[in-house]
C-alpha cells in the first residue's frame, strides 16, 4: 500500500512536531514536507509530490484559508484539511468554501486527524459532530453557503490592515503604490458597507483572515 504523502503547515514548530509524530506513526500516512506559513505551503504543493495538505487556519503571510483557495485552484487533485483551535461556524464555512475536505479541531487532533486524512483521500468529507449540526442548521436557514464579496487581493489587504500595517507598509509588502492601497481600501469599505479600520478588523476576524 502506498502511503499518503502529506504536507503539514503550521507556524508553530512544536505543533508541527506533535502532529508529525501522530501521523508518521501510521503506516499509510507519511509527512513529506512542512511549511511555516500559507505562502510556503502553496509553493511546496506547487513543486509536486503532495497528496494531502493539512493547513492551520491562522498563519502569517497567508492564512490557511487563503492557501486552501490557492491550492484548490492550482492543484485540484491535492486534498485539503483545515486545522483550527476554534469551534467557529464562520471558519468552518469559509474552510469548506475554500475547498477543504474537512475541518479538524486541534484540541482533538490526536483522535480525529488520522480518520480525517483517510476520509479526505477517499473523497469523503470529515467534520466533527458539532460542525455537522452547524452545517445543517445553516443550510436550512439559508439554503447555500454565501459567496465572498472580496477578491483575493482585497482579502490580502484586509488581512494586512487588520494586522496593524500602515498604508506604506502594505504597499511595500505587496510591491504596489500607496495610492493603489488607498484605492483598494476605499473599494473594500464600499463593498462591505463599512467605515474604518476597526470595522475591517472585525470583518477579518469573522472571515478567518486573522486570529481573534
UniProtKB/TrEMBL annotation:
The record, for InterPro entries, names:
CheY-like_superfamily (IPR011006), NreC/VraR/RcsB-like_REC (IPR058245), Sig_transdc_resp-reg_C-effctor (IPR016032), Sig_transdc_resp-reg_receiver (IPR001789), Tscrpt_reg_LuxR_C (IPR000792), WalR-like (IPR039420)
| Organism in which the protein naturally occurs | Actinophytocola gossypii
Superkingdom, taxonomy of origin: Bacteria
Alphabetically sorted, this entry's keywords are: DNA-binding, Phosphoprotein, Transcription, Transcription regulation
Query: Where would one find the signal peptide in this protein?
Result: none
Task: Please list the residues that carry the modification 4-aspartylphosphate.
Answer: 56
PANTHER family tied to this protein: TRANSCRIPTIONAL REGULATORY PROTEIN NARL-RELATED, TWO-COMPONENT RESPONSE REGULATOR
Q: What is this protein called?
A: Response regulator transcription factor
Any matching Pfam family: GerE
- Cite the SMART domains for this sequence: HTH_LUXR, REC
- Residue ranges of every copy of the HTH luxR-type domain listed in the record: 143-208
In what residue span(s) does the Response regulatory domain sit?
Answer: 5-121
